[in-house]
Write a structure and sequence with these properties.
The complex is a heterodimer of chains A (324) and B (337). By secondary structure, chain A is α/β, with parallel strands linked by helices. Chain A has one domain: Thiamin diphosphate (ThDP)-binding fold, Pyr/PP domains (Rossmann fold, 3-Layer(aba) Sandwich), CATH 3.40.50.970. In chain A, 44% of the residues lie in helices and 10% in strands. By secondary structure, chain B is α/β, with parallel strands linked by helices. Chain B starts with a strand and ends with a helix. In chain B, α1 packs parallel to α7, α3 packs parallel to α4 and α8 crosses α12. In chain B, the strands form 3 sheets. In chain B, strands 3-2-4-5-7-6-12 form a 7-stranded mixed beta sheet, sandwiched between helices. A 5-stranded mixed beta sheet of chain B has the order 9-11-10-13-14, sandwiched between helices. A two-stranded antiparallel sheet of chain B has the order 1-8. Chain B folds into 2 domains: 192 residues, Thiamin diphosphate (ThDP)-binding fold, Pyr/PP domains (Rossmann fold, 3-Layer(aba) Sandwich), CATH 3.40.50.970; 129 residues, 3-Layer(aba) Sandwich (Rossmann fold), CATH 3.40.50. Chain B is globular and about 65 Å long. Chain B contains 12 helices and 14 strands. Classes of the chains: A alpha/beta (324), B alpha/beta (337). The interface between A and B is large, with 48 and 45 residues.
């Protein structure tokens, strides 16, 4: 399916905003101004955007500890997210969640999640709700090759099949569960999709470094799952993680030249640009204009986050039904 | 008023709320029962008979049999709750929080706070707890001592059919996650229950089940009845006991306890969980902090020993706080000089 010029520009902008949002975080975290643990999604943008470009706010997603990309792709406010990661009171979660716990339920974003494997069961519940409502909405569980080894993910896949939840398990295989290789940690066939298949689901596979592969694959998956009664499906995207497990990770597990190689040959943003300019769908000038616009948006978000009011000690006791 | 069993109060309240609000859904292991068998659906209706007939009345979309997957049950309840439904999930036994603790502790309890107050999570997680069935170490435990310490959860422990009715309705209509602990030894107990389909008991309001000026006894669940028996016996001797049924351990009705201790000066807390970090210790400490001047004797907890729940009848009986043990504790605080 050929995307319109506007669709292409929007998809590119979404990927680029995730990339620059995180490249900037990578710099700002090193100054020590941002507190806590941060896990960057850079390199995987084509998956989040290729999936979420098909979704409306009535479709739900559940994300992971590496969740910035999913949040941004699902429509979470850039300024609100930056402010949240800076721990500001203007943050999407008023500075109470931080990088690993960003949510915007009104936008169908049911939360990043600090517990690996915790999201899939929640997505099943949202998928059951979608099935009950029978309006063709879906719920998507983003999981990595780490979460695919959690028992909760197995429970969730089986329960989704049994209850015919309108649920899609999107496995992003970035080849590392924290600091351990996929080749070591995923036993069966070195393949995640075949696990889902064994639970009785229809499965797809795609290239997670190619936006068009993700987008076209997801079009088929969604066509299937949006049909009431069809139940869940799963898809595995092969992708790359450009940074460490967490910010500050020395990445001693990487092979020589690995990061340079994947940045050079497996960068979804470079590949997108080459593809659309090569096919004459967009010009370099079109893309450069988006790049400039994105850089401004990120600069602006950081400036706002820095200037935003800090939470007060009194705020600790807000947003819980009781405190003692 | 209607006379019904504790278990019937559970079932009828869920049915009434499902009738009233199409967003209320029930899920759990065997809540329908018999799916995929020759006996057909509804062969069971919940192992406690607390969902019997719901499937026939409300259908499979709203009464959902799940595989034995407790993490996925609580997780699905979380996802349903975040998607506008009001799930009532059953964990069968409170002991099974062990296999679903992440979804309870790290997920449903935290959403509202962690997401900056914009998120509701109206999930009710029901589970049967407590000893008295000789069900041994993994099917007889208390769980309130663990769950009460988790910010964001409301923890409810009804002792009578009427309280089941009023508290479960409040739980289902509440926008926060509620752990609803049903004492399995009380399921067959009968009591008068209001007919009003909007009868609700607010959380954090204890019930005074016996009134007296000499000693305050605080409890809930199965042991509340034991405390009442002690109070009735002592009343014949002219000793007056306030017996306070907590109803909810979080929020807790501190005021009711403190008001009573101000008059009696003596406190016994009877708790079915082992002593360390227990509800009994928590309440004794709270009273020592906030009503020290009123105290005429050290507050005293009555707990089982710090052991798993044993199996044999003699052992389980020895394990549980008994009427004689509670009476001895009350006499001890009364005789303190």
């Amino acid at each position: 399916m050929q995307l319109s010029r506007d669709q292409l520009l929007k998809a590119y902008r979404q990927m680029k905003i995730i990339r620059e949002f995180e490249e900037r975080l990578h710099i700002d975290i090193q100054t020590g101004e941002i507190a806590g643990f941060t896990h960057l999604y850079c390199g995987q943008e084509a998956v989040a955007v290729g999936v979420c470009e098909h979704l409306s706010t009535d479709d739900k997603i559940v994300s992971t500890h590496r969740g910035h990309g999913h949040c941004l792709a699902k429509g979470c406010d850039v300024d609100g997210m930056m402010a949240e990661i800076w721990g500001s009171r203007d943050g999407l979660c008023k500075g109470k969640g931080g990088s690993m716990h960003i949510a915007d339920v009104d936008k169908g974003m049911l939360g990043a999640n600090g517990i690996v494997g915790a999201g899939a069961p929640i997505a099943v519940g949202a998928g059951i709700a979608a099935k009950i409502d029978a309006k063709g909405h879906v719920a998507i569980a983003f999981s990595g090759d780490g979460a695919c080894n959690q028992g909760t993910t197995f429970e969730a896949m089986n329960m989704a099949v049994v209850t015919k939840a309108a649920c899609i398990f999107v496995f992003e295989n970035n080849h590392y569960s924290e600091h351990t290789g996929f080749e070591y940690a995923v036993g069966t066939n070195k393949d995640i999709a075949s696990r889902a298949e064994a639970f009785g689901m229809k499965v797809w596979r795609g290239d997670g470094t190619d936006f068009f592969s993700v987008f076209e694959t997801m079009r088929e998956v969604l066509e299937y799952v949006r049909v009431p009664g069809n139940g869940p499906a799963a898809v595995e995207f092969d992708t790359e993680r450009f940074f460490g497990h967490f910010e500050g990770d020395p990445q001693r597990y990487r092979g020589p030249g690995e990061l340079d190689r994947i940045r050079e040959t497996r960068d979804c943003i470079k590949k997108f640009r080459a593809s659309v300019t090569g096919a004459g769908l967009l010009t370099d000038a079109d893309i450069d204009a988006v790049d400039a616009d994105v850089m401004d948006a990120i600069e602006n978000a950081v400036a706002k986050a820095k200037a935003a009011p800090r939470p007060t000690p009194e705020d600790v006791l807000e947003d819980v039904y009781i405190s003692y | 008023m209607a006379r019904m069993m504790y278990r019937e109060a559970v079932l009828s309240t869920i049915a009434e709320e499902m009738e009233r609000d199409p967003n209320v859904v029930v899920l759990g292991e065997d809540v329908v029962g018999g799916n995929g068998t020759a006996g057909g659906p509804e062969a069971i209706g919940g192992i406690w008979s607390t969902s019997a007939g719901l499937y026939g009345k409300f259908g499979g979309d709203r009464v959902i049999d799940t595989p034995i997957s407790e993490s996925a049950i609580v997780g699905a309840a979380a996802g349903l709750a975040l998607s506008g439904k009001r799930p009532v999930a059953e964990l069968m036994f409170a002991d099974f929080i062990g296999v679903s603790l992440d979804q309870i502790w790290n997920q449903i309890a935290k959403f509202r706070y962690m997401f900056g107050g914009k998120t509701k999570c109206p999930a009710v997680i029901r589970m049967a707890w407590g000893a008295g069935y000789n069900a041994a170490a993994q099917h007889s435990q208390a769980a309130h001592q663990i769950l009460t310490g988790m910010p964001g959860l409301k923890v409810v422990m009804p002792s009578t059919p009427a309280d089941v009715k009023g508290l479960l309705r409040t739980a289902i209509r509440d926008d926060d996650p509620v752990i609803f602990l049903e004492h399995k030894a009380l399921y067959g107990v009968k009591g008068e229950v209001p007919d009003d389909k909007d009868f609700m008991i607010p959380f954090g309001h204890a019930r005074l089940s016996r009134a007296g000026n000499d000693v305050t006894i605080v409890s809930t669940g199965l042991l509340l009845g034991f405390c009442e028996a002690v109070a009735d016996k002592l009343a014949a001797e002219g000793i007056g006991c306030d017996v306070i049924d907590l109803r909810t351990t979080s929020p807790i009705d501190e005021e009711a306890i403190l008001d009573s201790v101000e008059v009696t000066g003596r406190l016994v807390v009877v708790d079915e969980a082992p002593p360390r970090c227990s509800l009994a210790n928590d309440i004794c400490a709270m009273v020592a902090e906030k009503a020290f001047a009123s105290l005429k004797a050290p507050p005293l907890g009555v707990n089982p020993p710090h052991t798993p729940v044993p199996f044999a009848r003699e052992l389980e009986t020895a394990y549980l706080p008994s009427i004689p043990k509670i009476e001895a504790a009350v006499r001890k605080v009364l005789s303190y000089r």
